[in-house]
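Ticket #4471: structure export looks truncated?
Reporter: QA, pipeline team
Priority: medium

Steps to reproduce: submit the single chain below to the structure queue and open the exported record.
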Amino acid sequence: QVQLIESGGGLVQAGGSLRLSCAASGFTFSNYDMAWFRSASEKDREFVASVNWKGGDYADSVQDRFTTSRDNAKNTLYLQMNSLKPEDTAVYYCQHRGSRGQGTQVTVSS
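Actual output as written to the record:
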């Protein structure tokens, strides 16, 4: 079955950087678009970025600060987050179709 495991979250000061990873298994990773979402509370879910064979698409709120990439040989998705802001604080999930991982917490202090 599909398994997605995120890692790399943590506590960082505003202006800092983090790199998230998502290890994927249970499907042919290279054949599919992948996406990142985040939830700051139980009620909201915000699209962050996606990546396909052409490149990445980004939410306006993270454009020019975040970069998503993938290593198909390692079945791993990445999200490089620079110039982090307190409003980026959330649980970050990677998603493949209807499946998502357990998430990784990112907390940005002011």
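Status: closed, not a bug. The export was complete when the record was re-opened. Leaving a note from the reviewer for reference: The CA atoms of residues 42 and 56 lie 26 Å apart.
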